[in-house]
Amino acid sequence: MNPPIKDWRGKRVWIVGASSGIGHALADLLDTLGARVCVSARNQQSLNAFVANRPNAFAIALDVTQPGALALAFDQLTVHEHIDLIVYCAGHYTAMRAQDFDLEDARKHFDINYLGVLNLLDACLPKMTSCGKGHFSVVSSVAGYSGLPKSLAYGPTKAALIHLAEVLYLDLHPLGIGVSVINPGFVQTPLTAQNTFHMPALLTPEQAAREIVDGYRKGEFEIHFPKRFSRFLKLLRLLPYSIYFTLIGKLTGL
Ligand SMILES: NC(=O)c1ccc[n+]([C@@H]2O[C@H](COP(=O)([O-])OP(=O)(O)OC[C@H]3O[C@@H](n4cnc5c(N)ncnc54)[C@H](OP(=O)(O)O)[C@@H]3O)[C@@H](O)[C@H]2O)c1
Predict the structure, then answer these.
(1) Which pLDDT tens digit goes with each residue over 57-109?
(2) Which of 21, 44, 75, 251 is the most buried (most CB within 10 A)?
(3) Whose CA is nearest to atom 7 of ligand 1?
(4) Which of 88, 191, 224, 225 has the most ligand 1 atoms within 8 A of CB, as the residue to mutate?
(5) Global model pTM greater than 0.70
(6) Ligand 1, pocket residues at CB < 6 Å
(7) pLDDT for the residue 254
(8) Which domains does the chain have, with CATH numbers?
(9) pLDDT band at residue 22, thresholds of 50, 70 and 90?
């Protein structure tokens, strides 16, 4: 569905949200495979540590809620050459139920998980569409497939991202631009460290990074993993709501 990316040597990759977790592991793997990776996030110290021993890597610290910062970084990165792959991996998650609704934190989810992507698109779409090059990839989640308990603030932002990627694909694929959405199951990162419940089919960030690179190699639009978990959730969303809600309640005990 996308031009497969098999040879990473010399490829220019920008990962936004790469100071820890999945983004950091993906940056590390792509650097090892020969890509020239730019890492972005707020934590300058972590970004500096990443580039310290990697001569081809580059860091730009920024906050995705500041549109100007993303525009400035994109312009800086594309002065001489286009970027082959942009990955939006920044994310925020707090378990939230209706009984504990917190508007400020719900807005924070929206600002980082969704509006940040729009800020990035605003920065990079004009140049990408005019030269018809590159690949835009966004990290959503299997939590975006359908409603899950404790996902009141997080889930809707991830559902919106999946929808956004589908529409982007329709518009950008004919122009020769790759678009993909990455839907991980549970991955052991600072983001999920707060979870007190059992996380089924839990992966390490390094395993997640390998799954993502495999998805790019196959040219997939949706890169979802681990398959034993993501396929099960895909199946659940096909059920009538009456059965879906009962099953989710039984499976999660919530
Ligand atoms: N872990 C999972 O089980 C799982 C499952 C499905 C999807 N995901 C998604 O995977 C992505 C990566 O999450 P992760 O699990 O690897 O968690 P993580 O280690 O907490 O990574 C989140 C990244 O987002 C960055 N970030 C957060 N707010 C930002 C902001 N305002 N500006 C710039 N960067 C910001 C963080 O960097 P700074 O704090 O340095 O800014 C960090 O690099 C997220 O989109 C998450 O929703 C994770």
Answers:
(1) 999 999 999 999 999 999 999 999 999 999 999 999 999 999 999 999 999 99
(2) 21
(3) 141
(4) 191
(5) yes
(6) 17-23, 41-43, 63-65, 89-93, 112, 139, 141, 184, 186-187, 189-192
(7) 84
(8) 12-252 (3.40.50.720)
(9) very high
